[in-house]
Amino acid sequence: MESTEQTRSISGSMQSPRSPSSLPYLSVSVTDPVKLGNGVQAYISYRVITKTNLPEYQGPEKIVIRRYSDFVWLRDRLFEKYKGIFIPPLPEKSAVEKFRFSAEFIEMRRAALDIFVNRIALHPEVQQSEDLRTFLQADEETMDRFRFQETGIFKKPADLMQMFRDVQSKVSDAVLGKEKPVEETTAAYEKLKHYIYELENHLAEAQKHAYRLVKRHRELGQSLLDFGKAVKLLGACEGEPTGKAFSDLGTKSELLSIKLQKEAQQVLMNFEEPLKDYVRYVQSIKATIAERGTAFKQHCELAETTKLKEINLDKLMLTRSDKVGEAEIEYREIKAESEVATRRFERIVTRMEEEIVRFQEQKTEEMGVAFHQFAKGQARLANSIADAWRSLLPKLEASSAVQI
Amino acid sequence: MMGSEDDQESKVKMETLFLREESNSNSNYRSAMSTLSDSRHPSIVVTPADSDPLFAPPSYYNESRSKPNGGNRDSSSYLEPPSYADVIFSPFDDNSEINGSDDGGSSLHSQSSDSLSRSPSSLTSDYIKITVSSPQKEQESTNSMIPGGTTYVTYQITTRTNLSEYGGGSEFSVRRRFRDVVTLADRLAESYRGFCIPPRPDKSVVESQVMQKQEFVEQRRVALEKYLRRLASHPVIRNSDELKVFLQAQGKLPLATSVDVASRMLDGAVKLPKQLFGEASSSVEVVQPARGGRDFLRLFKELRQSVSNDWGGPKPAVVEEDKEFLEKKEKMYDLEQQIINASQQAESLVKAQQDMGETMGELGLAFIKLTKFENEEAVFNSQRARANDMKNLATSAVKASRFYRELNSQTVKHLDTLHDYLGLMMAVQGAFADRSSALLTVQTLLSEISSLEGRAEKLEAASSKVFGGDKSRIKKIEELKETIKVTEDSKNVAIREYEQIKENNWCEVERLDRERRADFLNMMKGFVVSQVGYAEKIANVWTKVAEETSQYNRESS
């Protein structure tokens, strides 16, 4: 079911809206991860709290329990229905079994899921999706059913048609000897594609180093801790005033170790994760590009087939064949399909144009925030390091004076 | 008695020599110590090296002791809240561009560490500075059977000093090979028993192939320099004949390469100059041991070899009853273990700092690439804005990375003091071992005397039963009595030696403790100051970015 052309602007926010209740709002939060189930089938469930004043929703607040695969279902549906729109990315499934239930991973995932849903809630077109409403409101059993349907044997007829067409077009390609896939060749679009592909590489590298930086913080913290301990032990063996000085030094070192661990966590959540999210976003754009390519191909092929049918029909009409009626029906059908395909393709193009603008602006904002927080965190860390060490100096100075 | 007259003579000579040496060494030590204790004035210098940051910082940091507000000193006055960032010079401060070279930094390092940790040079009095340089390959010029001969490396050793012992203000150079250094170390070990003598660099067990290699030669050069400087900083050893000869005597090193057994037997009682200015290759027999004495020679040789230089190894039966000494020994052992541990953790810390700097730099570079890319491909203004934000971040990340790495080389220099002291702890072990072996000698002599006396008694008892005397037995008794006398004299010498060593021990350990505590304090100060300075610099760099991105501040107040 396609959404209506009319879009409402709905304000969404991460916390309780402060706007007067007359303005429409929809805000969601994903909270309270809880481990359920046993052994191999264990999984994490989240509380999804929706606050809204929209009439389509069942009241001002609704709480449901959802798991990761429910989010996947939602995304898949939206991706199918809103082609051309950059559907926000989901955090990855974890490959490593052990890591799957670590506190860090769970928190990172929860935060990412929260961002995911809110982005959808903020998107002028997608926020009106019925699937979204289902996701936010349906009781758990209904949700399970929906989810099972999607991944189960029962495929919708539309999907079957699509699969059939894909096969058909591949076969005809082979028959007609078309080696090269049909592609758009406008300069602007080429540029965009190139940009997206290159961007992914650059971002992936930046993200890699950001992740390493988190590790470096942790390592430095650990080494400061060990150093502090060692120096304190040394101080215990050493005469005064050096012994006391060592002890103070060790204590400061241990203190700074804690600060470093804290900052490591901050860098992870506020800098590395946004970068990772950026990478995912670009990957989802690549998927949209693929969709557009498919839509384009369909549009081209159907247009061509329509032309062929038209030519055939004209021929038949000239020869006053009795197959004219049949041919005419076929022709009209194909023509209708072709028009649908063309509209579909054009809609994707239009949507993408808007989405790109939105994407660039959103990313500038989000990266700006990430950079700002990172810089502030680093400055704060460096300042507290300076303060901690500086506080030792008067005592060290006094000790030196006493020494002789 | 064969050679008994000679014995007497040389015994007297020996004693005189010993006494002279004793008073010499005492006065040397005491005068050195009193120089050190002229503490109220800033002009104490123990350290010779005034601008080498690799050497341990001076023992007595004296900047603002007399005046609380340090007057017009370097900006490193700790009592006002200073900005240490200013003190630590860096070529990579805010206004510099991003470039690839790191070379400019190292010379500034030594400058900055100078300003922080040295006393202004106008305050020095005595100094001695040793530099080791210009390694060269030379041929073994002997009548070797091997065609072409073997090669070895020599180093130029330049000394600059104003010590009167070396003839007032002067500069001179000699060429020495590593073998000479080993000789020097061995001779010092004998002459200065009970002293904490810095350990010499290791001999290498690697083949001569490797010995020729650049890296190895350079490592060795650095190690030699460190070693000689440490020797020169020791208040007594700096004035030793051995060191003087090593540093000054041109041509072949006129120190004996091996030691005759006699002087070994008497535990270093023999005065060295006799050997020095005699022929190097002849073995000087200072004492003619009595016939019975040959047993002792063998005995002492064995003793020497069996007293091992470690803390807990199985020892021949030294009966150590001095509680204070045993306590001190144990304390030293504990201290050494903790220094080892701290030194290891310091290494880990250095590595972690290094890694942090590297990764920060890589992050910066990745963002620079992104910036360039976005600018090239920009279609929207939002992209240009983002590219600009990234540039600010990248620039600061690269700067911060440089600061981390500079900080790290400072940290290495300071915390290296820990590593240096490991070497000196070994010197303490050596001093304690000297004491143990001297005590063992005394104890052994005592037990020898009592067993000799026992034998004499038995012989006398047996002889008295024979009427008219037992000529052969009487002769034996007389010989025994001679031997006993010689042994008694040796015992007295040994006791004096032991007492001397004990005193040396005590003075040295005191001195070392004091110096070590001061050095460690300085180390901590240097470490802390550089940490503060660079943390301030890094904070500034990031504060700038935070300001540049302040429009993105979303924190609710």
From TrEMBL, chain A:
This is Sorting nexin 1-like. Pfam families: PX, Vps5. Residues 1-24 are annotated as: Disordered. Residues 24-143 form the PX domain. CDD domains: BAR_SNX, PX_SNX1_2_like. Residues 9-24 have a biased composition (Low complexity). PANTHER family: FI18122P1, SORTING NEXIN. InterPro entries: AH/BAR_dom_sf, PX_dom, PX_dom_sf, Vps5_C. It comes from Camelina sativa (False flax).
Automatic annotation (TrEMBL), chain B:
Residues 104-122 have a biased composition (Low complexity). Pfam families: PX, Vps5. Keywords: Coiled coil. Residues 1-122 are annotated as: Disordered. Residues 61-78 have a biased composition (Polar residues). The keyword Coiled coil applies. The keyword Coiled coil applies. Residues 442-504 form a coiled coil. InterPro entries: AH/BAR_dom_sf, PX_dom, PX_dom_sf, SNX2A/B, Vps5_C. It comes from the Eukaryota. Residues 133-253 form the PX domain. PROSITE patterns: PX. Residues 9-23 have a biased composition (Basic and acidic residues). This is Sorting nexin 2B-like. It comes from Camelina sativa. The lineage of its organism: Eukaryota, Viridiplantae, Streptophyta, Embryophyta, Tracheophyta. The gene is LOC104708391.
